[in-house]
Amino acid sequence: MNLRSLGWYPAAGVGVLAILLFVFEAELDAATASLALAGMGLLAALHAVYEMGKTLATAEHDAVFQYLGGASAPMTELRDQRRRLLRAIKELDFDHELGKLSGSDHDEIVTRYRLRAIDLGRQIDGGETLHPELVAELKRGAKEANVVAETPGRACAECGAANDPDARFCKACGKEMGS
Amino acid sequence: MSLSTLGTLVLFILFVVNVATLGLSLVGSRRQDVRMIQGSIRGIDAVAGLSVFASTLIVYAFLAGDYSIRYVAETSDATMPVFYKITSFWGSLEGSLLFWLLLQAVFASIAVRANKRRHADLIPHVVTILAGISLFFVTLILFQSNPFAPHLLETPVSGRGLNPLLQNPYMAIHPPCLYLGYVSLSVPYAFGMAALITGHVDSAWQRAVRRWTLFSWLFLAAGLTLGGLWAYEELGWGGYWAWDPVENAGLLPWFTSTAFLHSIMIQERRGMMRGWNMSLVIISFWLTIVGTFLTRSGVVQSVHAFGANPVLAWTFGGLIVVILVFSFGLLIWRLPLLRSRGELESVFSREFGFLLNNWILLSCSLFVLGGTVYPSISEYVGDRVVLGAPFFEHYMVPLGLALLALTGLGPLLAWRKTTPENLAQQFFGPLAAGAVGLMVPWFLGLRSAWGLACFGLCAFTCWTIVQEFYRGIRVARHGGRYGIVDAAIRLVLRARRRYGGYVVHLGIVLMFLGWGGNSYKVEKKANLRPGDTVELGDYMIRHAGLRATEDWQKEMITADVEVLRLGEADGEPLTTLHPARWWYFKLPEQPTTEVDRYMAVGEDVYVSIQTVDLGTGWTQMSLYVNPLVNWIWVGTMVLLVGGAICIGTRKRVEE
Q1: Considering only CB atoms, which chain B residues are within 8 Å of A102?
Q2: DSSP readout, B452-515?
Q3: What distance in Å separates the CA atoms of residue B550 and residue B618, rounded to the nearest whole number?
Q4: Chain A residues lying within 8 Å of B345, measured CB to CB
Q5: Please, are residues B553 and B544 in contact by the beta-carbon 8 Å criterion?
């Protein structure tokens, strides 16, 4: 029983009603209308029971469903975590724009989250964690980036939208940004 | 074959199919047999189809007037309008159980259908849980409270009629709304249990249930308000909420699902509070069953309990214990998987605000639950102690105001961390607005401390919402590149849940405004003869005469009551109200009170009549001025709109 086939029941109801009205010459009152409705209900029930029996009687089944999967669970967990972190960074940016979060707090937390997100990305891709030297390097870079982040992003020459300082293309209009 | 036999037969087939579905899903998920699992998914559809058929049958029996069916004879009669004949379906115990089953089965079918591809690993267990729940109701209906049961001896010519109190348009939508809210909470519960069973307790199951919880939360809110509106217009005591056990029963899961809708945001963002969220889902569903138990077992005394029924009391009592043991057993078993993977950055963060909000909401829920069952427990132990509205209000007013304060505070706090300078900058506007909100009623002569606090907090919270929108729009305008309306739409679309949530908060503030109005309501009882006048607050009430009429169903005595402004006794009346008393022929010992009210933006003039002496014209009237009461209904509408924004439409992007 799929959603499209459900559309047949109202039609069947109207059909039953028509038969009641014209063949048995019933008066159109609430009881007759509800009898037609009950007829619809009967058809729906019979159809559903038939579908159930048919499914149980057929041997072949839709291979799309992976009811019994589950090996991918740790991976989804990691992906979820990374998605959460990226979203959190977006939200921190928004809170910062709204003036709820000071610049230094914002940068400190965002840096921490970025590092964690990169780390997670590595785990998802290769199952390895970051090289300690790279972590140190990234942290140094982040400290320098802090200084850059204090200066507002560059405005696009075409449309004026604010972009990240290192953007090559404008995120609003897509024009290439001059260096 | 009589309708009664056919109906019972359908219920029996329903029972068999339901047992088969449950068995297939249990064995199928254990043996990992795709054929059986798909069969059980079809089985859920079949259960839905069969309950639709059973329900249409009983509606037909009502409309056709088949009084050989006991339930039809007891809850309807031939003179009732068609509309109330249909609503009689859920007017009493047996029918309401069948109605419950109908909604449950249809919801189960929709939920399984919507998620069978996206959350395929959870589905077999979801089917098991949902089939288990519907099996409980089918068994109960078939073996204990069969709405199709015939009269054993002779068939009456006409029925006894629906309880006159229930013959009210609000009663037609109030129970379905509440039931929808109740029943749809079983879907989040089923997904939560499936997540625990499979051990996939990441956020996948929550994505599946967030919308459902929001949906049931909205319907619970609408149902509760409609119930309040019904009490206000039908019972004639001038109020809308009496902390009656059955009213409380609807409120309990609303509190916990509100808590869930907030704390799930922390889990989504931070991966914290997994165990807590799972517990809230379990408790919310458990409370819907407790609510049903309270309504149908006769354990509590209430205006709208369905009457004592020891068998039902024991079965529901058993179910309550089973759900509790089963769910929390699973939860404890999976506790190692649910451990938190995040930490609070600061006490001054929105997360902490949410945590506080959760604690308060849960304590509200537990407190109301305690207060509701306490009379029954005390009766069991010794003398029955009745806890009335003053008891509940004494504790719930501070709790409610604390929640209102958090509603205002929360949005001002940033996620993760807020600094003192930011706090000062954020709080200046709202605090100033709050002070104004406090002072204005004070100068107008209001002296109730709680009332003043309520108005002050309303102003405070309202200002924070406006401020949020203002700042958001300012950012979204990108320095004037978009117009205000354009920017507002972009903003709401960009963060639909955030801004939808603010709209919901605005609705809550309006409702609190209405509740705050209670602190200066005026009430008066008066015995008047036609021509007499009485002062009521800023109004003058004049009794302008009585009329006695009757129709096919009832005898009616209607009073004409003129409402005038005080000091303009000779002027044109503002309006003429027609409060009445109706005696239904079927139930003459239970007359109904038909209230009439004069609605203004600021207040209601509310009149109901109690006893009438037709010989002398003496009429006993209850007169009330209810300030701001209509803002409660307006607030609910705003809340529903906000909720609809939050639900929105599903994004078509597949992961």
Answers
A1: 419, 421-422
A2: HHHHHHHHHHHHHHHHHHHHHHHHHTTTTTS-HHHHHHHHHHHTHHHHHHHHHHHHHHHHHHHH
A3: 20
A4: 109
A5: no
Structure tokens at A17: 């009603």
Percentage of residues in chain B having pLDDT higher than 70:
94
Hey, is the C-beta of B22 within 8 angstroms of any chain A C-beta? Answer: no
For residue B579 the two structure tokens come to: 């409060």
- From chain B, the residues in CB contact with A46 under 8 A are 49
**CB of B288 within 8 A of CB of B253?**
yes
Give dist(CA B458, CA B511) in Å, integer.
Answer: 10
- Least confident range from A163-167, B69-73, B215-219: namely A163-167
* B151/A31 Cα distance (integer angstroms): 21
Residue B332 to chain A, least CA–CA distance (Å): 20
CA distance B484 to chain A (A): 16
Q: Could you tell me the pTM of the whole model? A: 0.82
pLDDT band of B652, cuts 50, 70, 90 = very low
To the nearest whole Å, the CA of B284 is away from the closest chain A CA by: 26
Which one of B120, B203, B341 has the shortest CB-CB distance to A66? B120
Interchain proximity A40–B60, CB inside 8 Å: no
Give the count of alpha carbons within 13 A of B307, CB side only: 4
pLDDT the model gives residue B387: 79
Q: What is the pLDDT of residues B430-455, one digit of tens each?
A: 888 888 888 888 888 777 888 888 99
In chain B, the largest separation of any two C-alpha atoms, in whole Å, equals: 86
What's the pLDDT band for B345 if we cut at 50, 70, 90? low
Name the residue among B85, B123, B479 with its Cβ closest to that of A67.
B123
What tens digit of pLDDT does each residue of B379-393 get?
Answer: 777 777 777 788 888
Give the per-residue pLDDT at B18. 95
Query: In sequence order, what are the beta bridge partners of B523?
Result: B624
